[in-house]
Design goal:
Number of strands: 7
Order of helices and strands: HHHEEEHEHEHEHEH
Strand order of the largest sheet: 5-4-1-6-7
Radius of gyration: 22 Å
Largest sheet: 5 strands, parallel
CATH architecture of the largest domain: 3-Layer(aba) Sandwich
Number of domains: 2
Helix content: 55-70%
Shape: elongated
Number of helices: 8
Length: about 250
């Protein structure tokens, strides 16, 4: 057991390096491994110091209380995110906004492919619905995220006139604001509710941005295919939600 405790930080660091450097899309799991290694080392040092310095015992107690509170808050936040990830059943919105994700050259990333699948299913189940495909072009992308989604969906039989492109947005806040502007431009009015397609882990935070934009978003989840990626992104989303809460309206990512 003693040997296990001594080797645990090293094992966590190695695992962190593995996730961060050798497994695509799992960098947040790597960061968690590094943090756990740091927590383990700090706790061990404080335990040794308390033998010689009584104040170290109080420091260790405060450290552990802070750690427990952080875990409780994180799990509570994760519960809210998980609940929102289920989406809303029987959605029947006339306009849906599909949030973009990374494009690899001209091909969709795994996350974007999941969102395209969800958009295709919704549009085929609701023949009168219009989809606003939202996402600009990054410096390392061959085409805009909106254009990539358009090409994929028209290739699957969705009529081009049912797909409105918003290809300027570079953040979730811009995705929603620019998409609402486009709906207002084409219909003459700004909707009070919209359908919102994004990866399931992202729906809660995207809903918060929608409220900032003055609209209620009805979540339509795009299921992440890989379980390990799902775990990584759900855990990362906890940090994303608190980033949003702390920075408020200044946080437009």
């Amino acid at each position: 057991m003693k040997l296990f405790k001594q080797l645990l930080p090293l094992a966590l660091v190695l695992l962190g390096i593995f996730f961060s450097c050798f497994v695509h899309g799992h960098s947040f799991l790597g960061l968690i491994c590094f943090l756990l290694a740091g927590v383990t080392v700090c706790n061990h040092l404080l335990r040794r110091l308390q033998r010689h310095f009584p104040v170290a015992k109080l420091l260790r107690l405060g450290f552990n209380i802070f750690l427990i509170l952080g875990i409780l808050i994180s799990f509570s936040t994760l519960g809210v995110i998980l609940r929102a990830s289920l989406g809303v059943s029987d959605v029947n919105e006339a306009h849906i906004v599909v949030l973009g994700a990374k494009v690899n050259g001209t091909e969709p990333s795994l996350s974007l492919s999941d969102r395209i699948d969800a958009a295709e299913q919704y549009l085929k189940n609701h023949p009168e619905a219009i989809a606003i495909l939202s996402g600009g072009q990054g410096p390392d992308e061959g085409i805009s995220e909106a254009q990539c989604m358009f090409e994929q969906l028209t290739g699957r039989g969705i009529q081009p006139e049912r797909l409105w492109l918003e290809d300027k947005a570079t953040s979730t806040w811009e995705n929603l604001n620019f998409s609402l502007d486009l709906i207002e431009e084409k219909t003459g009015s700004r909707p009070e509710t919209i359908g919102l397609i994004s990866s399931e882990y992202h729906l809660f935070r995207a809903g918060l941005f929608a409220k900032d934009c003055g609209v209620t978003a009805v979540g339509i989840p795009a299921k992440t295919q890989w379980l390990s990626l799902r775990i990584n992104y759900f855990l990362r989303e906890v940090a994303g939600v608190w980033h949003y809460i702390i920075l408020g309206g200044q946080y437009h990512d």
